[in-house]
Amino acid sequence: MKEMVNVETTLRVPKWTLRKRKTNFSLSNLFLYTSTVVVLFIIACAVFPKWIAPFSPTYMNAEHILSKPSADHWFGTDYFGRDVFSLVIYGSQDSLIIGVASVLIGGIIGGSIGALAGYIGGFVDVILMRVIDILMTIPGILLALAIAAALGPSLFNIVLAVAASAIPGYARVMRGQMMSIKKRKFVDASRSIGTPNWRIFLWHILPNSWSPLLVLGTIGLGTSILIGSGLSFLGLGTIKEIPDWGALLSQGRGYLTVAWWISTFPGLAITLFVLSINIIGDKLRDSFDPKTR
């Protein structure tokens, strides 16, 4: 009788308690977690700058002009006596707006062009891809520079300029994904039972083709912020009391010999954010790729 009870109690033990938990910790995971923390912190700085910044970005203190980094001013002060740490936090707003908005606009327009070209094919594919090929012959920063110079300095114009430079990449990736998926067997099976083409496109092809676009958009976010900061550095960005990261770099380049911190810390913010986004994008690419799972 006791043996039967022991057998029953043994059978009732959950299987997960009998398994040994393995810790899958590696250096790549450490980079991923660190990058995620950095990105979340910068997003929090852009969304809640008043809660994080110790000073107002427009507050000027004549007694602390060009002060070195200290306990009171972590990143030092600029030539107006403004706290550089607070300027970097508030400057993240426009930089993230440029990056996110340009990725969304470029992804939607470029993805739509690539989807039409890849799914319809034929003459439509030839015309659309020749236009994309012409745009791809122009470097992205030069294309954005030309558009921003033609439209004038404003936040909306710089978003359009950066988004236009990203359209060819999204179009090419989406076209290749469409051409690959529309030849799959489940698409042929759906077409064989009389499913309309528009329903096949919306319910079968499109949902299975967005993952490479998501990876490209994640990595493109860092590139968009780099291009937007470069345009602001050249004086084609927004003209506001609170400059973005690129404008902060431009304002501090004349004081590198006497106040290196004015340009150094905005540059570090750009570098950390772009590097963290690229690490997250590489991890997403590996997770979506069945060959590396």
UniProtKB/TrEMBL annotation:
Location in or out of the cell: Cell membrane
Organism: Neobacillus cucumis
Entry membrane topology: Multi-pass membrane protein
Top-level taxon of origin: Bacteria
UniProt main location, coarse: membrane
GO terms (BP aspect): transmembrane transport
Entry-linked InterPro entries: BP-dependent_transpt_permease (IPR050366), MetI-like (IPR000515), MetI-like_sf (IPR035906)
TM region(s), chain numbering: 30-52, 96-120, 127-149, 155-174, 213-239, 259-281
Protein name: D-ala-D-ala transporter subunit
GO cellular component terms, semicolon-separated: plasma membrane
Protein keywords: Cell membrane, Membrane, Transmembrane, Transmembrane helix, Transport
Family membership noted in the UniProt record: Belongs to the binding-protein-dependent transport system permease family.
Domain ABC transmembrane type-1 positions: 92-281
